[in-house]
Amino acid sequence: MKAKEPLFDFLSPSINYQILTGDSFSVLQKFDDKKFDLIITSPPYNIGKSYETKTSIERYLETQEEIINELVRTLSDKGNLCWQVGNFVDKGEIFPLDFYYYQIFKKHGLKLRNRIIWHFGHGLHASNRFSGRYETLLWFSKTDDYIFNLDNVRVPSKYPGKLHFKGPNKGLPSGNPLGKNPSDIWGIIQQDWESGMWDIPNVKSNHPEKTEHPCQFPIELVERCVLALTNEDSWVLDPFSGVGSTVLGSIKNKRNAIGIEKEIEYCKIAQQRIKDFKDGKLKFRPINKPIHKPAVNDKIAKIPEEWLKLDFINGNGKSTELNEKHP
Ligand SMILES: C[S@@+](CC[C@H](N)C(=O)[O-])C[C@H]1O[C@@H](n2cnc3c(N)ncnc32)[C@H](O)[C@@H]1O
Questions:
Q1: Which of 52, 135, 183, 196 is close enough to 44 for a disulfide, judged by CB 3.0 to 4.6 Å?
Q2: pLDDT, tens digit, for every residue of 252-288?
């Protein structure tokens, strides 16, 4: 049976993508300087997963820094880098990896724009500390002139009917008709992805995107970064691409993409997922924006009269003038 998704047409013929098998450091040598507008990845955490050999945190970071040198070289001047990590754990002590990576990226001149908390509703239950329920995504830009398309990722306002209560705009809607800024705490996919990933350990997950990979990230997480931090036809890179989630989140949104992965089995799964995507058969959770719904008759829940007159409220376009009035 054909999955209901994707709700988009087809893969644009002008979009290029590649899954390259090999060690990131070696493969990166062949790319030109400043090729990529976005580098997004979840690197190995050095915690002894099936695809890594656990070593000291110092040795691990040294190896990662060699790869990071190449990543900074291949990032465009308007480019962004998103680094999604959790904790390295040694004898029960946790070492938040973003603390260490922040220093490496700063040394290379990158500028932190957000430290995003990716919050999970569920997870493993710890007994010697509080249970971990988030990881972080460090978003850096290479320069001060970086791509940021906020309007592409706005989420519906909780209270679109809220009005200015004083000043020259008193009585007028105070929000932005295109939606609000999604903030730096991301709870996307928290209900079904997390219950699929964590609630049933050692059992084949029932999440539509789940493959054999032990720590895939959801396509939706990639899509938000791709939509906000690149333009159509940009090139996106994932230097630790696993089963190809970044490549999928990119080509789905008309961006060119390259994934590098050392494990041939994961590359094969990535290729199959891309084929399924092209055939319209890939199962994935549609990009979704959980909304708190106030009661339907609450004034605060209603779309303001002024916005109803605007044609783009129905998705027909965007108004620069309104954006200026409602930042
Ligand atoms: C946390 S996983 C990334 C999973 C990916 N985000 C996904 O959704 O499938 C890290 C991946 O990096 C790969 N890897 C580790 N070291 C590597 C290296 N030096 N070069 C290429 N891939 C590497 C591992 O095999 C693993 O699949």
A1: 52
A2: 999 999 999 999 999 999 999 999 999 988 877 666 4
Which atom of ligand 1 lies nearest, measured to the CA of 263?
A: 25
Using alpha carbons only, how large is the chain's radius of gyration in Å?
Answer: 21
In tens, the pLDDT along 160-186 reads 899 999 999 999 999 999 999 989 998
Q: Looking at ligand 1, which atom is closest to the CA of residue 270?
A: 9
Q: Is the C-beta atom of 252 inside 6 A of ligand 1?
A: no
CATH of 17-325, one of 3.40.50.150, 3.90.1150.180, 3.40.50.10770, 2.40.110.10: 3.40.50.150
For the chain, give the mean pLDDT: 84
- How far does the centroid of ligand 1 lie from the alpha carbon of residue 51, in Å? 8
- Return the best residue to mutate from 241, 265, 273, 285 for the ligand 1 pocket (most ligand atoms within 8 A of CB): 241
**Could you tell which of 97, 207, 261, 282 is best to mutate to test the pocket of ligand 1, judged by most ligand atoms within 8 Å of the CB?**
261
How close is the Cα of 69 to the center of ligand 1, in Å?
A: 18
**pTM here?**
0.84
In short, whether 148's Cβ falls inside 6 Å of ligand 1 is no
| CA dist., res. 315 & res. 318, Å (int) | 8
Residue 240 Cα: closest atom of ligand 1: 12
